[in-house]
Amino acid sequence: MSQFQFPVRPRRMRHDAFSRRLMREHIVTTDDLIYPVFVHEQQGRAPVASMPGVERLSIDELLRVGEQALALGVPVLDLFGVPDPAAKTADGRVAWDENGIIPRAIRALKSRFPELGVMSDQALDPYTTHGQDGLIDANGYILNDETIEALIKQSLAHAAAGVDVLSPSDMMDGRIGAIRGALEANGYIHTRILAYSAKYASSFYGPFRSAVGSAGSLGKGNKYTYQMDPANSDEALHEVALDLAEGADMVMVKPGLPYLDVLYRVKQQFKRPTYAYQVSGEYAMIKAAAANGWIDEKLVAMEALTAFKRAGADGVLTYFALDAARWLRE
Ligand code: PBG
Question: Out of 199, 223, 267, 309, which one is annotated catalytic?
Fold first, then answer.
């Protein structure tokens, strides 16, 4: 009962679609979507078994996907490289080869579709024989400052190829400032940085590691000495503050759905462009349950994307990006 003599009925506004629409607080639009893609040195397409609907693409096939993204209004692709296994080395040097898979993919996309945003990942894990994101010493420790030198070379190779957005995913200390300094020193003043600021040492990355071919290299290894402990969230605010101070234009929380509280705190505290990564394991879980007929893929995927917006995301990296753009048109 309210102070008046009639009941409170929040259900009135839910009674019809029109009034539900009128009071809707958060909506997903195509503008919110970042589409991660895997580019390999092979011909054609190769399915990723643990990520139904995701394929590794040759550069020719990538151009087809770029055309689809543009037609659907998806603003930006995020490129991950899959080198030939024989090209992997302990130092991952093929990562900064200007004729490596990613610089070639960037040049192909930007010359064919200049208006399509192109983002690329900076980390060494697809390119190293040990599957770690950085260089390692004799004890297997991932070296911080030496890795940053490698990331600068990788970043400059991507910037020279014309990438619009760099996204360092390695979690070395100080890499955003170092990369920003190198970009400025080389005249790349427009290159944006989306920092993987709060990236957790998560077990939800398994399918991705199969997709880029780092799972076998990593073996029983882990990333606990550089990626964040899933138990922490104050630490995420510290990491975000550092990356913003070092020159990041955008920050990210990763994984997505299990970390909505972190996303919410980051957006509340900093009010800067903030992104969530709905990672491979989250995608695989939805796909697997839907394939069993246990959940409705489209409704569950769109509900998850809406939850990111509600928690404060300005956008989402999602393997559902093209599907979501199609669903939004229906
Ligand atoms: C590696 C990287 C990973 C992801 C993006 N970049 C995996 C890892 O850190 O081991 C995960 C993405 C996903 O699971 O979808 N630098």
Answer: 199
